[in-house]
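Section 3.1 - Work completed
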Amino acid sequence: MIRIAGMAGNRGRNLLNITDRAPGGAELSVVLTTSEDAPVREGAAEREIPTEVVPLEDGMSRTDHEEAVLEALADYEFDLVCLDGYMRILTDTFLDAVPTTLNVHPSLLPSFPGTDAWGDALEAGVSTTGCTVHVVTDATDDEGNVVESEVDAGPIVTQEPIPVYEGDDEDSLSDRVLYEGEFRAYPRAVKWFAEDAVAVDEDGGTVSVGEDVATTPGDDHDGLPGRRLVSNDRLETLRYGENPHQDAAVYTDYTCEEASVVHAEQLNEGAKALSYNNYNDADGALNLIKEFDEPAAAVIKHTNPAGCATADSLAEAYEKALSTDPMSAFGGIVALNRECDAETAAQVIDSFKEVVVAPGYSEDALEILFEKDNLRVLDVGELGERTERFTEKPLVGGRLVQERDRQSISVDDLEVVTEREPTDEELESMIFGWQTLKHVKSNGILFTEGTETVGVGMGQVSRVDAVRLAAMKADEHAEGKDTEGAVMASDAFFPFPDGIEEAASAGIEAVVQPGGSVNDEDVIAAADEHDIAMAFTGKRSFRHD
């Protein structure tokens, strides 16, 4: 826990925000102000924080006032001083007598120091301003006169950028800097001090922060940054979000070099623009076909594969992918990892599809695809390498960030755990199934034969139900396929043998799964009883979003 002496000149909204959020367990010991009428006193009283008032009396020098402030604070214990709109230049009389003193300034120092940072930013016409939390240092000379160049010049602890929008005035900009900038940066700085992560070198004018680096102690990963600053530009406003009552827009990161649907060219300009759901599904489809070096095709519906396959030709891959579940593929998204040719295009338009995504199209293919007025045709260009490291999911009040699941396994990575060894064909199918399964929502089960999907069981809260769903999909929806002799892939271990029993009933003859359950021995025994070959990957491939 860290105890704070807060000093405010008016409303003290940053101090009250820190109190309410208690970053790092911080709490205010006292709030001091220069006026009996300062609104911060009421907010402090509501939170049962004691307050002190040290007025600026006529004829009182700067040193005299600081000594009075120190006397008022003498009965309180505190480890940090936080200023908030405390419109007094402090000297070493005060600063040398207390722990580190912090202030938050409403600009990205050293730009726009002084009392009118918002107006200065607007007058300068900058597109970005922000706030700075810095260590307070003496800005007076030996005679006690203020040295303007030294005001707001202490070493910087942290900053937060804030955009300046067309039409902003001082009120709108100051509100945005406060609520979106200062309310983030000040608690962050306090938390670092509470965690003893900050080293202040006032003589050298530097601050180092141990927590503001990418670390995952004890792991062999590259780590995640202490902060993520993401700046995207709105590409376009969408008709609506997932549902018509939701507003939506798509934002773009122009620094992204990886092939993406956001940066794709829509070739048939007369067709309607992509919707929120189109973008989401097309992104999922494109990420799936990036898994394969061989000609690959996938059909996606609601971010789940309705079918996926690789083959010697693109047209054959698409035919196999579509035949997994042609009913569910209606209104879906098609993704291809080769230039779309006329033969593939003719199959795509044979039933209703929303979008087709590919790294190029032949002239004949475009002529065929353009026959469908509202089939959006996206050219993502050369697929190249997968360069984007992170994926993220917004939460109310924050976001989850993780490394992309770029695991790729080979036959050598598989541990065969059953009496029967998988055949070469089953091993090939296990590898294909595992790479595809990463893109199926958990709990996910995939039935495959060779390098094509047979049945997909996605998004179930029970793994055994996911097996049943995959079997049902294959039996009732697949064309020219069945589960007899197929391979089953599971994105996590089987907690009980019942999933294997269901698979055996469906005719599954080989299984690939992570392993690692306390009941692995029972699951392996069930596989042996049904002469099912089973291999462990040692890795899980959940997909929860």
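Second construct:
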Amino acid sequence: MKKTNLLFLALLSVASLASAVEKLPPIPHLHPSVIQGQLPNGLRYLIKPIAPQAGQASEVELRLLVNSGSLSEAKDERGVAHLIEHMAFRQTKNFGKDEVKGFFNSNGMRWGNDSNAYTNIESTNYFFKVKPEALDRGLQLMADWANGDIVFDPEELKTERQVVLDELNLRKGDSVNWQSFYSVLIPDAPHLENMPIGFEENIRDLSPERIQALHRKLYQPQKMTLVVAGDVPKNIEQTIKTLFAKAPMGDQASQYPALPLTPKVRSYRGNPWPQDELAVSWGFMQSPISDARQVQLQKVAMLALSQRLSKMSTLENEPFASASMADWSGIIGRESYLILNAVVREQNPGATLTQMYREIRRAREFGLTAAEVKEAIDTYVLAMKSIPATNEVWANSLTGSAKMGVPELYVAEQKSIFDPATITPQAGNAALQQILTTPDQVAILIGKPATKAAKDDYYSWHDDKVNAMIAAVETETLQAPTAVVVKPLLVTEPQRGKVVQTKTENGATVWTLSNGVQVLVRQQRLPDERIGINGRFAGGALALPKEWGFVSQMLPKYMATAGAGDLTSAEIGQAVRNEELQFQPMFETAQHGFGGIAAERSLKPLMQLIYLSLAQPRSDDAARINSADLAMSGYWPNGPGFLQNLYGAGWPYRVWGSLSDFEITTEKLDQLRDQLYGNPAQLRIVLTGVTDMAQAKDLVERYIASIPPAKPTAVTLLPSKIEPKVQALSSTVLSERLKESLKTFTFRDDKYTVWSVALDGVESNTQNGFLQEGLNDVIKQRLYRTLREQAGDSYGVHTRGEMSPYYGPTLGFEYSVSREKCGEALVLAAQELRKLSQNSVTDAELKAMHELMQKGLDNGPKYPYWYAYSQMFHWVYNHDLSWVNPKPEQILTRANVDAAAKSWFVPEKWIVAADACKTLPDLTVLDQTVTAASH
């Protein structure tokens, strides 16, 4: 502790010496289209004008990076920097009470989706997007934040304290995990005692005067960078100069000093981020690198080494199943932090960690070959080309560049810092040696070991054992690396099928193939739109025999890791290593299939993957064992989830929590896979973002139409329809019904209250899908206002809905709540349901529903995986193609919305579970008639 305090004082000393004259310096090598400037008070701004292309909605992304975080808090202030960030969304000098949230909930925007903020140890970040007509208003809000014009209204401060305390309660476990990780990553730094989540007593009790003083200390213009990217007017720079010049330069350094390196290898074992797969990593930390060319060289060098490991993973005797690299530079400060990752094969973490270090030593001793450097450069160039040129990407990349002080390649004048023609193998090897020889290294074991042997091995690794392993490997005699041959996806082409029928309506084309597959194609709507793909069989968990229901949790993992054709999953990964595509199996309650994304140039290998996975699935014992391990470790401890309360024994999921629950032979697993995926006549596929219809048709005929039909003896598994069970809640009086519901149903998580209802008799179709999403948003916004903004009871509100003809639509919402506030929140939520069911939505809410749904339709092609998924929903659940060009105002009419609100949101239909409730207030207030909506 004494050492930490001394270092903290030293850092403060350096900061105070620098603060008198220091301002944020310009960022070198930025693209000439980026306008870069700095105000006399030190605030830096970066502007990237981007005119919208045909078909694109016009928007502007705004970011405010403040180089201040929880590290600047005194001991009795810890957690208050985060509270200040929350108060920024309450009220400012130019935005009165509720006006900030009203601004973010207009024009189809939603607070939390299109706007948000977060507080880190060394920075605070604000971000949102606006339409051009709202840009001046958005800049004014950012200026209020930057100029110190956040208003700390006593009543609003009191409410927001409770919101932050609820967030603290929700994220306490995550904070402990990250603190554990940081204690290994930066063991001698003061950051460990200043985690952003803070302490309850400070958040609850610190005086408004102290909070405002900390605000003035943190928010000083020389510590800030404003980023604007999008459709901006020509006078944007002058607007910024006018709005952001108010605050004078402060007395704090523009950024925190660099962290000192820790000159030793140490180990970390744990889960700071969600990770089901057992994996190992080796991290290399260096002091901040100011030479942007060196940053790019190091990334290329690490990519080359990770590609070597990835090729090695295709060999049977290697203990890891795949390998990759990651750039975590700036995870805390501005330090460079590059890591190698490997997924463990057959639950053997120790062997994987040892082999990873052996390959690090081999690379240190023999370096990279010229071919490896060239391949890494080619991959790096392709990766850069694959990044879409969106406002959001530009804004985020500029913000990252501002934080690190060197430009990310995406926003730089690229040849000035990365010219492939000038990178020699010698330069790549020199960069690699610089990484591998840094003394600051961390060996990481992460994930959930599933077997006793794996757990024993996993938990045995500590610093002494890691260093003993290093010493042993250093004595080995190593040979130079040998090249691994990469196999192609297909050696011979399948027998070609054909399109036997074509139907085009409302801009959508449907092909019926000779093997019975149907393919719906949507042509590209936006420039740079990626191809999205969704394949669907009716089936899912509801199609499985009850005794094999757990296969629903195993099968997608099995298909992803078993490989296809003659290739293992690692060999498939190598075959498509330089392609721009994603492909993954999908398994849901009433449907299963696959989804993916591809650039146009990678559509062929994507089609080949679909063909291989359906026509030539591969059997693999090790993959079956691994998928069972992952299913057991990743399955939600609550097992079937809350929907079993609605459907009872008919719901296909169970409480599976041990390996014995996932016992199945590889032969039987293969048989079930073939029954579910083996009949192409049951398959529908959606392709979105297609630019070349002739090319798409050719590939569909070559690979999709060539999938052989089901064997005559094959039995296709199809879903069975289930009905909501009749609830055993006897009372029709709401107050008594809720009491009975709380006693009957459980959620097993005392941080949340959950409400849910199954809509028996409501058809699954586009109209009801729009109504479900729109009304869910209404109740979410109302509960945000009631529970969060007014009562301060809840940090977050989440709504959800599922829709299927096999089990009917479901609605649900949940909110975080403290044990003390649980009963009060229960009453408030029930009252909001009653107001909605008795009075429906206001005109303003109806207009907001139209705007939100239209925005979703406009932005769909930006998210190709989910765009294809949504198109599949509309295609499957409607009888024609009239849904292709929906108009929200025609679907969400006043009559339709009123009818749904009054039928779906009657609180007497809902069940509620709240294990958090310590005591219940008088619930009879709920039995009174609600006469008017309050919104």
